[in-house]
Amino acid sequence: MPAAVKNSENMTKHLTKAELDARLRAEEEVLPQRQRVKLKKPGFLSGNRQANAYWNQILKRMEGLALLDDLDSEMLAGYCSMLARRDQTILLVSQLMDRLGVAGAVDKKNPPSEDSEPPMTPDALIEAASKLDALTGKLQALERNLLQYAEKLGLTPSGRVRLAQKRAQAAALDPDSDLFGD
Fold it and tell me: 75: closest CA among 2, 1, 151?
């Protein structure tokens, strides 16, 4: 895992004035007060109400930050779609846990009432536990992917600083900077 990235205010490394200026310029480009870019929403996102809501919410929260351009719209749409799938998976896990709890298999303190569903058979309980295990595995994989997407899109603090760091390094790599005279 790479080392955590620091912004220029928190750095203890000694940089030359040129390196520090390049770093500060790159951080300013990633942080607020840049021109706003209008992202075009991909068509597949319109059919998914929850993903569409995430798209609008993220763009609203990113107002003033010009981290993304139109080339990133597909990746952001995929991220929003994964957020919606995560919500659906959490809902399924919750429903399955409620079903196990209603059956009295999980919550022994509150046995099922007379008007609730009948207790689960051992086979049904094993099947439900297997489904729960599969769903939690999918949920963990989705959450890992979401973190990777967020990092790449610059939606995490370390992702934003990492983008600033890359821009500063690119600005500092002037091939003619070490030449003297003509």
Answer: 151
